[in-house]
Amino acid sequence: MTMPDFDLGHWLSAHRIWGLLSASARRTLLQGAQELLVKRGQQIAQAGHWPDALFLILEGRIDLHNTQRKHTHALYAGEMLGQGSSALALQQQCDIVASTDGRLLQVQSSTLHHLFQTDAALELFLPVPLSGVLTGKTTAAEHASAQEDIALLSRPLHSLVRHQPITLPPSLSILQVAQTMRERSVSSIMLTENNRLVGLVTDRDLRNRALAASVDVNRPVMDIATQTPKTLDHNSSAFEALLMMARHNIHHIPVMDGERIVGMLTATDLTRQHGTSAVYLSSDIHHQESVEGLARISHKVRTLQQQLATAHTSAYDTGHVITTITDALTTRLIQLAEGLLGPAPVPYVWVAAGSQARSEQTAKSDQDNCLILDDSFDADTHGPYFKAFSKMVCDGLAECGYIHCPGEMMAMTDTWRQPLRQWREYFLRWITVPDSKALMLTTVFFDLRAVYGQAMLLQTLRDEVLERTRGNTLFLAHMVGNAQKQRPPLNMFGQISTIRSGEHAGKVDLKHQALAPIVDLGRIYALADGLHAVNTHDRIAQASSKGEISNQSARDLRDALEFIASLRIAHQTQRMNEGLAPDNYLSLDELSNFERGHLRDAFSVIQSLQSVLGNRYHF
User: Fold this and answer.
1) What angle do CA 517, 518, 522 make, to 5 degrees?
2) CB within 8 Å of 481: residues ≥ 6 apart
3) What is the CA radius of gyration of the chain?
4) Beta strand 507-509 with 94-98: parallel, antiparallel or unpaired?
5) What is the pairing mode between strands 43-45 and 369-373?
6) What is the predicted pLDDT for the residue at 114?
7) Looking at the DSSP assignment, which residues form a beta bridge with residue 503?
8) Domain limits of the chain?
9) CB 137 within 8 A of CB 78
10) Which fold has domain 165-229?
11) Is residue 272 exposed (0-12), middle (13-18) or buried (19+ Cβ within 10 Å)?
12) In this structure, how many other beta carbons lie within 10 angstroms of the beta carbon of residue 248?
């Protein structure tokens, strides 16, 4: 029912989201909606029993009362809740209560589905999937499915290969191979010569490299084959295959036992939930033709993290999966920039720094990156191209939710877009004159990983840097001294200390107070022994094998890293489930006594190992 003096059409046209729709689309919305008048104190829906609809608040205040955490979140006129807007867990945990007299517009899910089909841009503003009535039974099914997917990813590849390998000689024609693929109902064929894998042909190759390119189908199939296909050992995990597929936008991986072909693994062997799996998100990313399309897909990263958290995926694996999507977005933005500006005038490598380089990202991340250019770079001739190129990529990442680095440590900053010779000078100066600025920069630029381009430019630099830092006790003493400025928050009585004042008073900063000290330790171990690993967990494991840290201490530190990183992911996921932005500030009230004890123990491990390094490397 419509009250006098309230023009719904005018209200929708002035709304920040619904005003973007055409007048006809808004009429469609109204036809599938019902206006509700609510009274102060009225319960509109109970936790776990929200209607299959989206609510638009026209007037008044609506409270989401979290029945589990005893927390209330207020929403006001112009805001939304329900289907497409509120996360599944939020709907399971919160009652909807009118705090004042008010007015709502209830839009049925079927109407929303129709609007999504006619205006895909709505996904930018309504990122939560429309999955039907969200009941407790649905939650259990989704949880079980997620658990099954994660269990699948831990299995060795040989357990997933279903059929004997299908191979053909490379001398056959494109037509003959295509006919065999049709007869055998397969999407790929491996090419072998003298029992060795020499090539791979997929249905995409037939479509893109043969038919679309008007290639004579009687030509040898090797003309369109991938001649050095990426492979994995049969004992590798399915998770490793998922990451390889997502990073390189491939859907087929030959599984090998030495030089013997075990079989073929496809993306569909790894996952069934195409919408939010890393493989299919990556594939969608590579098909986008605009920054707007990439930004729309980037909203699914939060949903992906929520599902991984629901399935109790390790922080180590979660970081790799989330970072894989960042790599895919970065790669596609680079390709779009090259499409607009033309090919780069000299070779380069786009390099991730910080948490992206370490494959330790979560849904709450900014961007740290740089550009290493070939020494043939000339500033006057080539500078304008790379300035425009790097700005397009960094601005595109910002539109995808990876905010510009507050310290401007990005490729769009002139200082961090330099030829290899200048990068050599940077690192030489940082290592030989480790002043406070140099030590601050080491926390970012000593964690580097190639994302796109000529990776050898970075590899050459890293080899030289590690050769200079290995056993360099003076430099390492400066690194240790700088790292010890960031101590875990334990007071003199061994109890956890929280932030004393400000916006986050009474909380612990999990990123800077808890994880950063472990990252610093891993970095120092790697530089001290010349280790090439970049991921913190991997650095600690390699350092243990080299004797830089004892096996027991390495296990303790890896456990501390996993526990704290998992707390951070759970905290961020909980905030997203409640409709809040993820952050790194944990209230101890969120933890059980058991968890507080473990956190205190983790901090104690970090402090102890900081002291060990302090005694080993000192002035």
Assistant:
1) 120
2) 614, 618, 619
3) 27
4) unpaired
5) unpaired
6) 79
7) none
8) 8-134, 165-229, 317-465, 470-619
9) no
10) CBS-domain (3.10.580)
11) exposed
12) 15
Residue 125 has pLDDT above 70, yes or no: no
Q: Specify the fold of 317-465.
A: Beta Polymerase; domain 2 (3.30.460)
**Going by C-beta distance under 8 Å and a sequence separation of 6 or more, which residues neighbour residue 338?**
344, 389
For residue 18, give the nearest of 128, 102, 105, 130 by alpha carbon. Answer: 105
Residue 334 has pLDDT above 90, yes or no: yes
Which amino acid appears at position 339 of this protein?
G
Going by pLDDT thresholds of 50, 70 and 90, the confidence category of residue 1 is very low
Phi–psi pair at 57, nearest 5 degrees: -85, 115
Q: Are 241 and 230 in contact (CB under 8 A)?
A: no
What is the rounded distance in angstroms from the CA atom of residue 182 to the CA atom of residue 174? 12
Task: Point out which residues pair with 235 in neighbouring strands.
Answer: none
Structure tokens at 400: 């995808």
Which letter does DSSP use for residue 512 in this model?
A: I
Helices 455-469 and 473-483, axial angle in degrees (round to 10): 100
What's the rounded Cα separation, in Å, for the pair 587 and 499? 10
**Residue of 423, 431, 521 lying closest to 469 (CA atoms):** 431
Geometric angle at alpha carbon 137, from 135 and 140, rounded to 5°: 115
232: helix, strand or coil: strand
Tell me how far the alpha carbon of residue 364 is from its chain's centroid.
9
Half-sphere exposure in the Cβ direction for 387 (13 Å, CA): 9
**What's at 391, amino acid-wise?**
K
51 phi and psi angles, rounded to 5 deg: -70, 160
DSSP string, 113-180: HHHHHH-GGGGGT--S---S---HHHHHHHHHHHHHHHHHHTSBGGGT--S---EE-TTSBHHHHHHH
CA 302 – CA 292 distance, rounded (Å): 17
Tell whether the torsion through CA atoms of 195, 196, 198 and 200 is positive or negative. Answer: positive
Counting DSSP H helices and E strands in the chain, the numbers are 23, 20
Cβ count near 118 (within 10 Å): 12
Which fold is adopted by the domain 470-619?
Four Helix Bundle (Hemerythrin (Met), subunit A) (1.20.120)
The fold of 8-134 is Jelly Rolls (2.60.120)
Among 123-127, 543-547, 604-608, the range scoring the smallest mean pLDDT is 123-127
Above 80 in pLDDT, residue 263? yes
> Is the predicted pLDDT of residue 258 greater than 80, yes or no?
yes
Query: Which residues 6+ apart lie within 8 Å of 454 measured at CB?
Result: 347, 348, 349, 374
- Cα–Cα distance between 495 and 489 in angstroms, integer? 8
Q: How far apart are the first and last CA of the chain?
A: 78
